[in-house]
Amino acid sequence: MRECIKFFEVIAMALGAVLGWYLGSPDGFFYALVAFVVADYVTGVLRAVVERKLSSTIGFRGIARKIMIFILVGVAHLIDTFVVPDANDVIRTAVIFFYIANEGLSIIENSAALGLPIPTELAITLKQLHREEINEQDEEEN
């Protein structure tokens, strides 16, 4: 039994080391991103339950998108580390900020869909950010 526990400890340490190398050192921004990703997923599931649209396919797609967020954070960290070594994790931090904002907007949308009142200023900002995202996507396609 002890050998089995020791084996899993070694696996967990190796996985932690690889993730630490790939994602960079966990800082406050990274912890905030993790919290926002989890909160967005939970509020999305709650919204799906209330709207009776819960689907394992959609849920799996949501998990895949969340995993992709962390893959992109890792890519940004590798760029900071090996391509632009004097960047001091600027690219990683920018990617994290982008996804914190994105996840925050999604949390607000889910909350509004569940009937939670959203402050007017927040709703206006949400609408403006959505318009900007749509405009940026249109520009990228052209």
UniProtKB/TrEMBL annotation:
A GO cellular component annotated for this chain's UniProt record is: membrane
Q: Which Pfam families match?
A: Phage_holin_4_1
Q: Where found in the cell?
A: Membrane
Membrane as a keyword?
Answer: yes
Topologically, how does it sit relative to the membrane?
Answer: Multi-pass membrane protein
- InterPro entries xref list: Phage_holin_4_1 (IPR006480)
Keyword Protease carried by entry? no
State which residue ranges cross the membrane.
Answer: 7-23, 29-50, 62-79
Keyword terms of this UniProt record = Membrane, Transmembrane, Transmembrane helix
What's this protein's family per the entry?
Belongs to the bacteriophage holin family. Cp-1 holin subfamily.
Protein name, please?
A: Holin
Q: Which organism is it from?
A: Fundicoccus ignavus
